[in-house]
Amino acid sequence: MKNKIRLILVGAVSFIVLLASYVSQGADDALVKEREALAEKIRALEAELALTQKEKDKVAQELEAAKERIDATNKVIIGSYERMMDTKSEAALYEKLVNSLAAEVESRQITIQQMQSGVILNLPEAVLFDSGSSQVKQSGTKVLNKVARELLDVPYQTVVGGFTDNVPISKRLAQQFPSNWDLAAARATSVVRLLENSGVPKGRLVVVSLGENQPIASNDTAEGRAQNRRIEIRLRPVIIENAEK
């Protein structure tokens, strides 16, 4: 009887252990499945997050491109406005010079032109210099002093250019002026010094020698060559701030 009971107990214990084993294995399978489901969900969320980041990056790029287009448009608008204001200022300056130098314009001692790049005052050689000389003569000094008074309050860059005809320098002058470049440079420098001495701030003044280049008339005639021998004072709409006097 006792042996029979012992066998029944042993069998029951074995069954319970086996059942527990099955239950444990089932629980593990459920956990594994749950873990895999969570892992899959995490991968899906990560993929969605990556997609969202790409979309954010795309929007950010489009926004930056839009800002660049706006900046470019603003520059064009501002440039157009500034150019319009410059044109008005240049027109006002042109009118001022024409009115204040009316006598010199009338006597052809000076011509004044309004250009896209500023205002140009053209003074022929005959008004400023004797032939072959770089020293401003008395009549030229009088005209330039009057011009200087009109330029005192004009904050533009003042470019003084010297021009000649294409006739080579004579042997008599070659030692002082080896070429037309040198003669034109010396004459432009003399004009700049006179303007500076008359009060035009030297920080605005620029000297340029163009020699026989950029003629405004044919060098085949005496009249044309006379027109090419000149000094140009170009007032460029470049504001020079705090120009040293």
Verbal overview:
The protein is of the alpha+beta class. The chain has two domains: 1-100; 109-239, OmpA-like domain (60s Ribosomal Protein L30, Chain: A). It contains seven helices and five strands. It has helices at 2-100, 102-106, 125-128, 138-151, 171-174, 180-197, 222-228, and strands at residues 111-115, 118-124, 156-163, 205-211, 230-239. A five-stranded mixed β-sheet has the order 1-2-5-3-4. Strand 1 (111-115) and strand 2 form a beta hairpin. It is elongated, with a radius of gyration of 45 Å.
Q: Secondary structure elements and their pairing?
A:
Elements: H1 2-100, H2 102-106, E1 111-115, E2 118-124, H3 125-128, H4 138-151, E3 156-163, H5 171-174, H6 180-197, E4 205-211, H7 222-228, E5 230-239
Parallel strand pairs: 3-4
Antiparallel strand pairs: 1-2, 2-5, 3-5
Helix pairs in contact: 4-6
Describe what is shown at a glance:
By secondary structure, this protein is an alpha+beta fold. Helices cover 62% and strands 15% of the residues. The protein has helices at 2-100, 102-106, 125-128, 138-151, 171-174, 180-197, 222-228; strands at residues 111-115, 118-124, 156-163, 205-211, 230-239.
